[in-house]
Design goal:
The chain is α/β, with parallel strands linked by helices and about 220 residues long. The protein is about 50% helix and about 15% strand. It is built from eleven helices and six strands. The protein has a six-stranded parallel β-sheet with strand order 2-1-3-4-5-6, with helices on both faces.
């Protein structure tokens, strides 16, 4: 059995922070090792405990979550950082990702989606809230011509295109499996093949590229 993912939570809203602890601790091999509302205290905790993941609020006194993440990097912390915020502003997301955050998530997301996002971020994926996927288009991929677009997606099977459409909606593998009445493992295999064919490293990149190029079938229903 692999070691649990050790998570530090940093959010100055006490009730929300305590709720996150209850949600995450002990789920899917996640262990919350610390939770604080103080960025200064978070630095001390990180120095002592060296958590694998820091889930950080964007707007905290005195200087905000991004300043905390910069300090952590300056001090040599090599863990995975995720911003969890109420802000759906494109500039805030751009600054967070440019500052080294592996994820940008919104506080209104479903609990299961948050747990899944933490696990995927630990595997090296960039994770963003479904509502932010469209706003990533201008941040990730330059525009390509129509011919290049057709070549890029030509190798995808109809089922892979269908699953790619659901990825553009921010759906988890489990949710896609339920909709298509197939197993979770089958969806995971399709996603791996999609990423390999598109030569990408994360489902977020695949979703953004598909939206940018209109490379998914319009017949797939929204969920």
């Amino acid at each position: 059995m692999s070691d649990p993912v050790r998570v530090m939570l940093v959010d100055d809203h006490t009730l929300f922070r305590k709720g996150l602890v209850e949600l995450l601790d002990g789920r899917d091999a996640i262990r919350v090792v610390a939770a604080t509302g103080s960025p200064a205290e978070a630095l001390d905790i990180a120095r002592e405990l060296r958590p694998d993941v820091a889930i950080v609020d964007l707007n905290m006194p005195p200087h905000g979550g991004l300043a905390l993440l910069r300090r952590l990097r300056e001090e040599g912390w090599q863990g995975t950082s995720i911003v969890l915020t109420v802000s759906d502003a494109e500039d805030d997301m751009a600054n967070a990702l440019a500052g080294g955050a592996r994820g940008y998530l919104l506080k209104d997301m479903e609990p299961d989606e948050l747990v899944d996002a933490v696990r995927r971020a630990m595997r090296g994926e960039t994770v963003v809230a479904p509502a932010m996927t469209l706003k990533l288009v201008s941040l990730l991929h330059p525009k390509r011509g129509a011919a290049a677009r057709e070549d890029l997606f030509a190798e995808l099977t109809p089922r892979e295109r269908e699953i790619l459409q659901y990825l553009t909606q921010g759906m988890t593998n489990k949710a896609i499996a339920r909709v298509l009445a197939i197993s979770h493992e089958t969806v995971k295999l399709h996603v791996r093949r999609i990423l390999a064919k598109l030569k990408l490293s994360s489902r977020v990149e695949a979703a953004v590229l598909a939206i940018e190029h209109g490379a998914v079938p319009s017949r797939v229903a929204k969920h």
